[in-house]
């Protein structure tokens, strides 16, 4: 999501804010239903059968804890972003793939050769490890 918004030449701060907001919509919905179930368990009437004043009072008993839990979540996220110095630079750097160098190919080939030697020695010894009594 953020990458697509950045390709549209939007600021990375705006694209991150949009992606973060969309990410937490399901969490807020789940919190809403949890608070609603807790309030109904306490005996608050929230169905359409109740009077309007009772439903408004029940809705406020859901919305206020939902706002406080959302503010707590926002505080946690903003603290984490500040600790990671989000937004300290004007321009964002992105991870890019680098081509293999000769030393990278050497390590890959060395690993394959060592693996082959291990398989050969395993087959040579019939799958047994070192046994000092043999």
Give the gist of this structure.
With 134 residues, the protein is mainly α. It has helices at 2-7, 12-41, 52-83, 102-124.
Structure in words:
- This protein is mostly helical.
- The protein is built from four helices and no strands.
- It is 68% helix and 0% strand.
- The radius of gyration is 29 Å and the shape is elongated.
- The protein starts with a helix and ends in a 10-residue tail after the last helix.
- The model has no long low-confidence stretch (mean pLDDT 82).
What is the topological layout?
Blueprint: H1 2-7, H2 12-41, H3 52-83, H4 102-124
Membrane topology: Multi-pass membrane protein
Subcellular location: Membrane
Main location: membrane
Rg, alpha carbons: 29 Å
Intertermini distance: 62 Å
Question: What is the N-to-C order of secondary-structure elements (H for helix, E for strand)?
Answer: HHHH
- How large a portion of the residues is in β-strands, by DSSP E? under 5%
Amount of helix:
55-70%
Computed structural class: mainly alpha
Number of helical segments with 4 or more residues: 4
> Averaging pLDDT over every residue, what do you get?
82
Q: What overall form do the CA principal axes indicate?
A: elongated
Number of strands: 0
Uncertain stretches of 5 or more adjacent residues: none
Biggest β-sheet description: none
């Amino acid at each position: 999501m953020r990458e697509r918004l950045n390709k549209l030449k939007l600021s990375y701060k705006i694209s991150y804010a949009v992606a973060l907001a969309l990410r937490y919509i399901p969490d807020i919905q789940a919190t809403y239903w949890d608070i609603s179930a807790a309030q109904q368990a306490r005996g608050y009437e929230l169905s359409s059968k109740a009077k309007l004043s009772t439903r408004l009072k029940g809705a406020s008993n859901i919305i206020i804890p939902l706002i406080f839990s959302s503010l707590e979540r926002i505080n946690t996220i903003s603290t984490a972003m500040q600790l990671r110095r989000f937004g300290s630079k004007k321009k964002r750097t992105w991870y890019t793939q680098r081509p293999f160098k000769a030393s990278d190919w050497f390590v890959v080939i060395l690993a394959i050769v060592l693996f082959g030697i291990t398989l050969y020695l395993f087959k040579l010894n019939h799958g047994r490890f070192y046994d000092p009594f043999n």
